[in-house]
Specification:
Layout: H1 9-13, H2 21-36, H3 56-67, H4 69-77, H5 85-95, H6 99-109, H7 117-132, H8 138-152, H9 155-168, H10 175-200, H11 204-213, H12 218-243, E1 266-268, E2 274-276, H13 277-288, H14 290-310, H15 317-341, H16 344-356, H17 361-383, E3 385-390, E4 397-402, E5 405-408, E6 411-414, E7 420-427, E8 431-439, E9 444-452, H18 457-488, E10 494-496, E11 499-501, E12 505-509, E13 515-519, E14 528-530, E15 533-540, E16 543-551, H19 560-577
Antiparallel strand pairs: 1-2, 3-4, 4-5, 5-6, 7-8, 8-9, 10-11, 11-12, 12-13, 14-15, 15-16
């Protein structure tokens, strides 16, 4: 892409802007004729001219631009104008490559009261810009931007510029084109400084330009903003997928790594992602660390925002919008970790990160409210807990029940993930055996202890009763919800003792073969607990009979009464919907 200063049409032809159309045409023919005999012409305004800069194509393009009403005014604006003795003195120093002396001449003259002071300043800004293409210079950068900002915001300059342009460009002069130049000159300058940044590989060109003009040209958007935005949007997309908790049915299973749906076994992870068995063999352990995958994409977003900040683009309107979107996406993941896993530490860290990148105060305030709630929940969970002490002869055991999980030793089971539970107390002649068990698909806690010859039997029974009470009040609702979901959403069969429970009803194998079934459409009688057993009933010949009896020791037998009711309610609800 041509640069309006480096590749200026007047520069290609070796002319200043005070040149008539006739002289422009003559110069273009001269250069082309000399190029045909490999005679490369040199002119006074050849400031650091690159090799092969003047070619037949570049000369013809330059001529077309200077003959075009639309293009000529831009080329005129962005090139040197030699109008008087001061300009001649500066030009003389440029010939000798005494660029600093030329700068000093125009700088001194621009502080005077001469009617040409704005054009001295424009020449100075152009010279600064040209020199920067061939080496980074902080003074040139800051001085050029300061001058450009001054002259393009000066009505006096534009009045003088319009008069001068029409004076030397009668054929191409057009008030409409000058107005268009004035409206778009900041964007044109943005292209110049974006080009400088790419050539010198220095972000300061873009950053300092943004600090003064706060405008993004097409090239800046295409080459700088858009690639960074695309990277952020890709990270947001992945974070949103991680944050959305789903409960896939058998028909919906799809590997999040390879995309296959053609496998018998899928592994479901804590963040709701899914791997096929083959991918699990290759990367299951690494994939299981869902937090690490979240951090990977959050860090990628932070790195992208850092790139924008280094270029002074972090406060543009477009950047503010995408920063808000990224912040909300990170917050969504944090909320998911809080709600689904009670990972307070990780959740708080992510929300703080999200707040730090918010583009607007509205977004920051919204996320700050959420952070306050998570912190309060964390404090509540730390304060509200129950330690159940299990007395021993020589030592004591302890299981801790918090608001969302139970903890025993190094094992932690979240109530929301519990899929199995049981308890029992069996009294013998000389001892009583106590048992307590809860399990998720990942971890389990199982306690068995005995009161022998009445030693601490009261304390042990009280400890067991406390655990059972917590199980029935706080854990059972989650367990039942999970079992119902397995049956009606995932089309699975749940086994409790000899019972097989599915979406049609509950069944058991007959003593002489076959299967006896009680369907959800049949009369259903609530199971009852009695003397360490659970009894399930059915109706036969108009009377209620025991269908199955099982010990409370059987996994999930303890929740059968409420579980049966929940299954019946779910079945009824789904058939009402149909």
């Amino acid at each position: 892409m041509a640069n309006l200063i480096r590749d200026n049409a007047y520069r290609i032809l070796g002319l200043d802007t005070n040149t008539s159309q006739k002289a422009i045409l003559k110069r273009s023919k001269e250069i082309i004729n000399r190029l045909k005999i490999d005679d490369i012409p040199e002119y006074d305004l050849d400031i650091h001219l690159p090799k092969k800069f003047r070619t037949e194509n570049s000369v013809n393009d330059a001529l077309k631009k200077l003959q075009s009403t639309k293009e000529a005014v831009k080329e005129y604006f962005f090139w040197l104008q030699i109008s008087d003795i001061i300009d001649e003195k500066a030009l003389n120093e440029i010939k000798k490559e005494n660029y600093q002396k030329a700068i000093n001449i125009w700088k001194k003259a621009s502080n005077g009261k001469n009617s040409n002071i704005y054009f001295y300043k424009k020449n100075l800004a152009i010279l600064y810009s040209l020199l920067m293409f061939y080496g980074y210079n902080t003074e040139c950068l800051k001085s050029s931007l300061s001058i450009w900002h001054e002259i393009i915001n000066s009505d006096k300059f534009w009045t003088s510029f319009s008069k001068k342009y029409k004076m030397f460009n009668e054929q191409t002069a057009n008030s409409k084109q000058i107005i268009e130049l004035k409206d778009n000159v900041k964007e044109y300058l943005s292209e110049v400084y974006t080009d400088l940044s790419h050539i010198q590989k220095v972000d300061d060109y873009i950053k300092n330009f943004q600090e003064i003009f706060n405008i993004q040209g097409k090239r800046l958007k295409k080459e700088v903003l858009n690639p960074v935005f695309e990277s952020i949007y890709e990270d947001i997309k992945i974070l949103n997928q991680i944050a959305l908790r789903e409960f896939p049915t058998k028909n919906k299973d799809k590997c999040d790594n390879c995309g296959t749906t053609n496998t018998k076994k899928f592994l479901h992870f804590e963040d709701s992602s899914v791997l096929c068995s083959e991918c699990d063999k290759k990367m299951g352990d690494e994939w299981q660390e869902g937090i690490l995958r979240i951090e990977k994409h959050v860090n990628s977003i932070l790195a992208s925002i850092k790139k924008l900040k280094e270029k002074g683009l972090e406060n543009s309107s477009e950047t503010r919008i995408i920063k808000d979107k990224a912040a909300k996406s990170i917050n969504q993941v944090a909320v998911s970790l809080h709600n689904d896993s009670q990972k307070y530490k990780e959740s708080i860290k992510l929300i703080k990160t999200a707040i730090s990148i918010c583009g607007t105060q509205v977004c920051k305030d919204e996320l700050s409210k959420g952070l306050k709630i998570v912190k309060e929940n964390k404090d509540d969970d730390e304060k509200n807990f129950m330690d159940v002490i299990i007395p021993g002869v020589f030592s004591e055991g302890k299981i801790t029940f918090r608001g969302h999980f139970a903890e025993y030793g190094h094992k932690k089971v979240y109530y929301k993930d519990v899929v199995a539970a049981s308890f029992s107390a069996v009294a013998g002649e000389y001892n009583t055996k106590f048992h307590f068990f809860i399990s998720s698909n990942k971890e389990s806690i199982e306690l068995s202890f005995t009161a022998v010859l009445g030693i601490k039997s009261k304390e042990k029974e009280e400890a067991w009763q406390q655990m059972v009470g917590i199980l029935m009040e706080y854990i059972e609702p989650h367990l039942i919800k999970n079992l119902v979901k397995e049956i009606f959403d995932k089309q699975k069969t749940i086994y409790i003792g000899n019972l097989e429970i599915d979406k049609e009803g509950y069944h058991k194998k007959g003593f002489w073969g076959g299967t006896k079934s009680i369907l959800w459409d049949d009369p259903i009688y609530p199971p009852q607990m009695k003397s360490g057993e659970v009894m399930v009933f059915n109706e036969k010949n108009g009377s209620v009979r025991v269908f199955e009896t099982m010990s409370l020791d059987e996994t999930n037998a303890c929740v059968l009464p409420n579980f049966m009711k929940a299954c019946l309610d779910e079945y009824t609800l789904r058939h009402l919907e149909l």
